[in-house]
Amino acid sequence: MNILPLPAFNDNYIWVILQKSKDLAWVVDPGDAEVVLDYLTQQNKKLVGILVTHHHPDHTGGVQQLKERFNCPVYGPSHLQPLITHPVEDSDSIHVFEHTFKAIETPAHTLDHICYFSDSGNIPILFSGDTLFRGGCGRLMEGTANQMLTAMNKLKELPQKTKVYCTHEYTLNNYKFALSLDPDNTRLLSVIEECKVLREQNTPTLPSTIDLELACNPFMRTDITALVEKAAKQLNEVRSNNPGDQFSQVRRAKDAY
After folding, report:
1. Per the domain annotation, does 88 fall within a domain?
2. What is the Cα–Cα distance from 39 to 16, expressed in whole angstroms?
3. Least crowded by CB within 10 Å, which of 78, 83, 132, 179?
């Protein structure tokens, strides 16, 4: 199984999942149908399924047109019916070619957010939507800091070699904030330079890995006292002793950065 990014809008990626040796494809969060159709036409591929992580238009805007064109199943949050054809809940299984993905509910960025995880291949895969970014996490558009902390804790438990496919190219901006909290993190300093080179070449900084996020992503490291103290200082606050409030301090510091 191959996974390729299709750039869309200013900084979105629509992920294309390809089955080796066959001209079939799935897509994840197709906010723009024309981007997908152009790729399928150029590569002579047929769309046979869609995964949706949440309801925002930059993730769903192309679903209806693609569904009508290819008569394919669409998996996603249940309240999006009839746009989606197969409602998904936590721990549900979705078969994508030779892989089985498990739905992981991660309400926070939106209350309907779902990630999709598979460990049925040699390398585990996570489609994280707008929950987990490289170096960051989604804004709390509908949910709470406690909910996002719960989501981060769920994703922390995935195998460290898991490849993380999020849907926005926010990496360098996220890393600027991460560095403000963790200036002596040698791995962070190293990957920032690597990502600068990638972006200069107009190459995606994705996928990431859970291992990398555990080492560099402040939203997976809000149990580190010094990191939260710097976030609180940026807010002119005293560091909280409550885990959910600590996460909130880091999130609000990023929002104001």
Report:
1. yes
2. 9
3. 78
226 lies in some domain:
no
Q: What is the DSSP letter of 11?
A: T
- Identify whether 193 is part of a domain: no
Burial of 146 (0-12, 13-18, 19+ CB in 10 A): middle
Catalytic residue among 55, 99, 109, 113: 109
Active site residue 99: no
Is residue 109 part of the annotated active site? The answer reads yes
DSSP state of 138: -
| pLDDT for residue 201 | 97
- The CATH number linked to 63 is 3.60.15.10
Is residue 113 flagged as an active site residue? no
> Is there a catalytic annotation at residue 182?
no
Which is the catalytic residue, given 32, 113, 168, 182?
A: 168
Residue 257 lies in a domain: no
Strands (E), 130-199: 132-133, 136-137, 163-166
> What is the C-alpha to C-alpha distance for residues 175 and 185, in angstroms, rounded to an integer?
11
What is residue 239's predicted lDDT score, i.e. its pLDDT?
Answer: 97
Q: What is the pLDDT of residue 121?
A: 87
pTM of the shown model: 0.97
Query: Is 130 marked active-site?
Result: yes
Question: How far is residue 158 from each of residues 68, 149, 166, 177, 250, measured CA to CA in Å?
Answer: 35, 15, 15, 25, 22
Structurally, the chain folds into a number of domains equal to 1
The residue type at 218:
P
User: Can you read off the two tokens belonging to residue 177?
Assistant: 């904030």
Domain region containing 120: 2-170+206-216
Looking at residue 1, its pLDDT comes to 87
